[in-house]
Amino acid sequence: MPPRTAGLLAWPHLLAAALAACECGYVSSINGTADTALFTDMLETDFTQNPPLGVHTDWAPQAFNLTRDRARGPYGELFAVANVGVSGGKGGEEEEEEEEEGLELVVGGRGAVVDGMVPVAEVDSTRLDVWWGTFRASMRMTRVPGTCAAFFWYFNDTQEIDMEFLSREFSAANGSYPVNLVLQSREAAVAGYNAARTGTFVKAHLPFDPTDGFHEYRMDYVPGRVFFYADGQRLAEMDGPAVPTTAGHLILQHWSNGNEFWSGGPPAEDAVLAVRYVKAYFNSSAPERQRDWAARCRDPAAAGAVCSIPDVTLANASAAGWFFKNQGNTTNNQTASGQNDGARLQRLWWPAVVGLLLLASGWVVAL
Length: 367
Ligand SMILES: *[C@@H]1O[C@H](CO)[C@@H](O)[C@H](O)[C@H]1NC(C)=O
Ligand SMILES: *[C@@H]1O[C@H](CO)[C@@H](O)[C@H](O)[C@H]1NC(C)=O
Ligand SMILES: *[C@@H]1O[C@H](CO)[C@@H](O)[C@H](O)[C@H]1NC(C)=O
Ligand SMILES: *[C@@H]1O[C@H](CO)[C@@H](O)[C@H](O)[C@H]1NC(C)=O
Ligand SMILES: *[C@@H]1O[C@H](CO)[C@@H](O)[C@H](O)[C@H]1NC(C)=O
Ligand SMILES: *[C@@H]1O[C@H](CO)[C@@H](O)[C@H](O)[C@H]1NC(C)=O
Ligand SMILES: *[C@@H]1O[C@H](CO)[C@@H](O)[C@H](O)[C@H]1NC(C)=O
Ligand SMILES: *[C@@H]1O[C@H](CO)[C@@H](O)[C@H](O)[C@H]1NC(C)=O
Known about the structure:
Protein name: Glycoside hydrolase family 16 protein
Helix content: 10-25%
Radius of gyration: 21 Å
Number of strands: 21
Pfam families: Glyco_hydro_16
CATH architecture of the largest domain: Sandwich
Bound molecules: 2-acetamido-2-deoxy-beta-D-glucopyranose
Shape: globular
Organism: Trichocladium antarcticum
GO molecular function, one term: hydrolase activity, hydrolyzing O-glycosyl compounds
InterPro entries: Beta-glucanase-like, ConA-like_dom_sf
Number of helices: 7
Strand content: 35-45%
CATH class of the largest domain: Mainly Beta
């Protein structure tokens, strides 16, 4: 076999096509422009596209009940697939707004409480191999006080990275819009899962009204450090022993248990968390994905072998509409919803996620 470069020189017309495929991964800024990191895998879901969630292979709506005790509040929580919808579905206060976009996670109003449980919503990524990465979700918060909207990365109750928005804390009157940033550590477990009593809890203030439109919330998880952002603006940085070390999965959740110190509620009426997209670029813990990368990435220095991930910023929101999967030949051997590659990967991991998939298909039927 001749050396690879000789082959390319012999067929120069093949050069661009063969090399512009991001085969060595995706590079993200970390901590503003202070640093960068390379990630090998991606999961991009645009919930505003057809076909919507459920036909996708990326996310699984959850169905389980938490008693009052397990929910740690005066109410239990009923996680129902029916409370996960797509554009134009059920909606309380936001129904009059011009366009419903994307995924909707509904918390039922007081009148909807069933057997002492508030109807609430959760979807989980079906991939469980999400290790170091940059995780980005475009969301619009509810204006109805009494819910907790959460975007988080999760392995177990002591390996967890969390952005939690309490709608009762939003105050249009004094322009105060906090977000609670949490690492649930072993220390937090000892403190009764109250990370507020540990060093890995920050209440940051958003520079905009999160109920007023979609904004990108982002967590970067790299060895020994976690960074949180809103529209590209750094909110906090955490390090130390509470930073997780394992691979996990991503979760979108909207809930209420009536606990006056946290979610408050239940809300007076149905409350909707809307999600336009999740874009996650990460390293996989799955040996077959690591092997795939090693086989795919022949020369990281070759033109187009490594691709830059554009950042959404306060000054330039246009990257919010940007997906690799719309750029042509930049998602070879990746999962991006609507693409066959994703379906192939899903089948590989069928045994690990079979329960979640059954729930997902139940949801499709429920539609
Ligand atoms: C896409 O990239 C791959 C390399 O990963 C290459 O083999 C293929 O020819 C490219 N396809 C097109 C249509 O450019
Ligand atoms: C992140 O950026 C901030 C502000 O630019 C800087 O103070 C901090 O040291 C950086 N953190 C790391 C881990 O580089
Ligand atoms: C992700 O994996 C690639 C390939 O092994 C490696 O080059 C890169 O440094 C890893 N990224 C992080 C943040 O560890
Ligand atoms: C949750 O509780 C409701 C009401 O009691 C019940 O109808 C439903 O079957 C339960 N769901 C699960 C997953 O146990
Ligand atoms: C979570 O996982 C870590 C790493 O495997 C382990 O050390 C820890 O004990 C686990 N925590 C819980 C609550 O299971
Ligand atoms: C204004 O913000 C403070 C926190 O900074 C809060 O304690 C107070 O309740 C808010 N005021 C109103 C009217 O909500
Ligand atoms: C805004 O972001 C888009 C998408 O990443 C990029 O193409 C464009 O150059 C950016 N504009 C400015 C002014 O930075
Ligand atoms: C990635 O490529 C390898 C080798 O061709 C293949 O076995 C694997 O199924 C591919 N995975 C995806 C998600 O396309």
